[in-house]
Amino acid sequence: MFQSAALLAFSLAAVSYGQQVGTNTAETHPSLPFQTCTASGSCTTVQGKVVIDSNWRWVHGVGSTTNCYTGNTWDATLCPDDATCAANCALDGADYSGTYGITASGNGLTLKFVTQSANKNIGSRTYLMASDTQYQIFKLKNNEFTFDVDMSQLPCGLNGALYFVQMDADGGMSRFPTNKAGAKYGTGYCDSQCPRDIKFINGQANVQGWASSPNDTNAGTGNFGTCCAEMDIWEANSQAAAVTPHPCTVTQQTRCSGTTCGGTAGRYAGVCDPDGCDFNSWRMGNETFLGSGSGFTIDTTQKITVVTQFFTADNTSTGALSEIRRFYVQNGKVIPNSFSNVAGMTTQHNSISDNFCTAQKTAFGDTNSFSSNGGLVQMGTAMDAGMVLVMSVWDDHAVNMLWLDSDYPTTAPATQPGISRGPCATTSGVPATVEAQSPNAQVTYSNIKFGPIGSTFSSSGTGGSSPGTGNGTPPAGGSGGCSTAKYGQCGGIGEPHFV
Ligand SMILES: *[C@@H]1O[C@H](CO)[C@@H](O)[C@H](O)[C@H]1NC(C)=O
Ligand SMILES: *[C@@H]1O[C@H](CO)[C@@H](O)[C@H](O)[C@H]1NC(C)=O
Ligand SMILES: *[C@@H]1O[C@H](CO)[C@@H](O)[C@H](O)[C@H]1NC(C)=O
Question: Organism's domain of life (predicted)?
């Protein structure tokens, strides 16, 4: 995924202490209970909470109300360099609903897209917490993660994302003692894009070399980026959805600098796989599987239960990650993921394995940065270390989310395998337009469950079905034209895309 953090500088009254801590607004984390299940299928409720990422927070002078950061620029006096800025500036508490449009109710969390208060907030990124000072750590291998999602209010151009990243559980406080804020204030974010729009990394500000974004009034990029492995369970709107592992060669949150971060200056120059290995049913050749309305197998106008299973080669939690399977449950029916139906892919797949990834990238002519960063086995090492659950909603100032829901790159014919990813127009997803036309867009995540494979879901009314086994049967018939294609012949043009 490619996420630009929005927001936001206030000019309210305050007292404080950059990563120091401000005390103008008390930090009260919204509750988000979730369940852990056992192999027998019994589930226990855990009293989780969520925290908003530090990038969205008001950053102001210690003991003053002077903004350290306003719009997309830093205050030159408080922030002459990275270290001084971190000592001078404090992250304040958040008014979750009033400022950011984040509300928790029962076992659900709703994230609104645009929230207008004294300032205008765009989107948000939140993390599940085990306590007020520690993120909840998940070990996904040989386990299953299930949640419900309502995407009916997410149009083209938006992304309601639920995913895991390998952040430090304490937000980086113990490894970087100049970070005084920690997980309580949502510090320590990293992902496989090695984002450079993060204001504080490794206990320092990212002010040196900061360039304000030309098209995002709330964002910019500094010299440093922050990298770590990312497992995208769900990047989706009402028109398209993708599940995407992104391994990294680094084994913990790691700061990068300049072009070695990859991304804009050399997409594949970094220590992570920026593209990942995505399974988007539309892109994989099934344009009726998921979409808005009763004509689709999975109808995004209604709540969807999304199940993701992480198999290992020997079916133990210590084995090598070998396959990621997806099921859906809707209206009491368990629905296996769709099968690929792509020219040039001779085997039909409905799960993610290294074989699937290689075949897909070959058919699409994409760079296989998934494989060069270690593929599923390396993704599994991040899972061994433990990962943090992220829930967000965002729009895309780089490429208008076309990589998720439209044709991308737009320079290639949409008929070429891998280019069409969803039904949205190539003119859709422009942030200014989406923000103006769909300010009330929102996503709700709820009913999170985690446990051994087969423990977190069932079909209703078919008692005794065993949901964790079997993965569906591929439809009979060939896989379309161009089935003998060699690399590139049927594939894409290999341009970077954001997955
Ligand atoms: C692991 O479990 C799956 C699903 O039950 C099964 O198909 C597979 O054969 C098992 N693999 C091993 C090595 O036991
Ligand atoms: C799409 O998926 C559905 C459900 O698995 C299936 O019935 C249908 O045949 C698939 N269509 C194509 C074109 O593969
Ligand atoms: C917005 O600016 C970024 C540079 O920060 C650039 O990479 C991107 O292409 C621009 N997006 C659009 C849609 O113009």
Answer: Eukaryota
